[in-house]
Amino acid sequence: MIQMRENGINFKGTRDGLQISLGDDLTFDSLKDALRKRLQQAGDFFKGTGLIVQFTGRLLEPDEISQLKNLIEEEIEAPVFVKDPPDDITSKIFLENDDLIIEGPAKFVYNTIRSGQRIAYDGNIIVVGDVNPGAEVVAGGNIVVAGYIRGMAHAGSDGNDKAAIIAGSIRALQVRIGHLIARAPDNDAALISQPEIAYVSGSEIVIEPYLKAASISRRRGEGYI
């Protein structure tokens, strides 16, 4: 289990991600500086992997949570998902904009989903592992996978085409969002060096690097990712 301390910042590895304890004795700007320094000292430890984090020890405003989330994403070059509250039933996934906070129940799966297994849930599904060929993940909301998707993934299964699928690499035989169906590109998975996102644009499913999509979304002022 990881445990690191630095000037009011405490990192603690948990079974579903990283708990970051924030000291009350720093200004928010000083807190951000300390967090950035702590992440830089960690080197490549967190680089390139989607991370579920939970902030504790300090009451934060929604805008402050968003700023810390964006800071961590910049440093680790991967998507960050903020878990709140700390129970296993309800969670919030903060994506790139304050106006997109997907609230509601989320199912956490703490292992790789193997061939023949099917995980289905009405809300969001977060997999801390891979989705192997022959496995299926079906969510009424979004799907977030810390590793690879090589099986079938269906987000927005109740017809919600605003849902998204985010993974370390999307190599799924079939990707579904709402009523739309697509297949992941045939690129060699070894060439994928950053997380990917699948979302609906117009009348088709687009699969592209997560950070590229997030950057475009910010510039356009859109809030879907």
TrEMBL record:
<feature type="domain" description="Septum formation inhibitor MinC N-terminal">
    <location>
        <begin position="9"/>
        <end position="74"/>
    </location>
</feature>
<keyword id="KW-0131">Cell cycle</keyword>
<dbReference type="GO" id="GO:0000917">
    <property type="term" value="P:division septum assembly"/>
</dbReference>
<dbReference type="InterPro" id="IPR036145">
    <property type="entry name" value="MinC_C_sf"/>
</dbReference>
<dbReference type="InterPro" id="IPR007874">
    <property type="entry name" value="MinC_N"/>
</dbReference>
<comment type="subunit">
    <text>Interacts with MinD and FtsZ.</text>
</comment>
<dbReference type="GO" id="GO:0051302">
    <property type="term" value="P:regulation of cell division"/>
</dbReference>
<comment type="function">
    <text>Cell division inhibitor that blocks the formation of polar Z ring septums. Rapidly oscillates between the poles of the cell to destabilize FtsZ filaments that have formed before they mature into polar Z rings. Prevents FtsZ polymerization.</text>
</comment>
<dbReference type="InterPro" id="IPR013033">
    <property type="entry name" value="MinC"/>
</dbReference>
<dbReference type="InterPro" id="IPR016098">
    <property type="entry name" value="CAP/MinC_C"/>
</dbReference>
<keyword id="KW-0132">Cell division</keyword>
<dbReference type="Pfam" id="PF05209">
    <property type="entry name" value="MinC_N"/>
</dbReference>
<protein>
    <recommendedName>
        <fullName>Probable septum site-determining protein MinC</fullName>
    </recommendedName>
</protein>
<dbReference type="Pfam" id="PF03775">
    <property type="entry name" value="MinC_C"/>
</dbReference>
<dbReference type="InterPro" id="IPR005526">
    <property type="entry name" value="Septum_form_inhib_MinC_C"/>
</dbReference>
<comment type="similarity">
    <text>Belongs to the MinC family.</text>
</comment>
<keyword id="KW-0717">Septation</keyword>
<dbReference type="GO" id="GO:1901891">
    <property type="term" value="P:regulation of cell septum assembly"/>
</dbReference>
<dbReference type="GO" id="GO:0000902">
    <property type="term" value="P:cell morphogenesis"/>
</dbReference>
<feature type="domain" description="Septum formation inhibitor MinC C-terminal">
    <location>
        <begin position="109"/>
        <end position="208"/>
    </location>
</feature>
